[in-house]
Design brief:
Belongs to the YggT family. By secondary structure, the protein is mainly alpha-helical. Helix content is 76%, strand content 0%. The protein has one domain. The two termini are 14 Å apart.
Length: 182
């Protein structure tokens, strides 16, 4: 049973992560000819395109993709409630799914910044993945860079962002004391 739960969790988290990336790439107006952008769009199109006909975008936000991501985040908790207790509380699943979606956005930002920091040490010259990661993280890091200057050639904005993300993670975990219990 543990293997089934692991595979289900991986599936739901992967789908939600790709949907978040799709919205995020659109929000920062990333280069959609980039291989990473092309992958995300092509993989998520079967899930998103049918809903785009029903749910229009609002003010440049891809509402259909956000709704689909929220649906999969809630569905994950419905499935796990059903597997663990046999009973399903839809309101509680909606609450947990919404928090899980927010937490997944923060986790994705953390991972992208971590990979970007590691890549900055080893990648020389142009790298299309690094360009996309910089486009994705710039809206979060730019305000921090205005406050925290570059010291001795080191950009500490990612460190400050990591600390801020951990604080938000602690607050979200406090909203559900038994976060991993279901």
């Amino acid at each position: 049973m543990e293997a089934v739960v692991y595979l289900l969790r991986f599936f739901f988290d992967a789908v939600v992560t790709l949907l978040i990336l799709r919205v995020w790439l659109q929000m920062v107006q990333a280069d959609f000819y980039n291989p990473l952008s092309q992958f995300v769009v092509k993989v998520t199109n079967p899930l998103v395109v049918p809903f785009r006909r029903l749910i229009p975008g609002i003010g440049g936000f891809d509402v259909a993709t956000i709704v689909v991501a929220l649906f999969f985040a809630i569905l994950e908790w419905v499935v796990f409630q059903g597997l663990s207790t046999g009973q399903i509380d839809f309101l509680f699943a909606m609450y947990l799914g919404t928090l899980a979606l927010i937490k997944q956005v923060g986790f994705l930002l953390f991972i992208i910044m971590l990979v970007m920091a590691i890549m900055s040490w080893v990648v020389q010259g142009y790298n299309p993945t690094m360009v996309i990661f910089q486009q994705l993280t710039e809206p979060f890091l730019r305000p921090i860079r205005r406050v925290v200057p570059v010291i001795g050639g080191l950009d500490l904005s990612i460190l400050v962002a990591f600390l801020a993300l951990n604080v938000v993670n602690i607050l979200l975990t406090g909203a559900v004391p038994y976060w991993g219990g279901v």
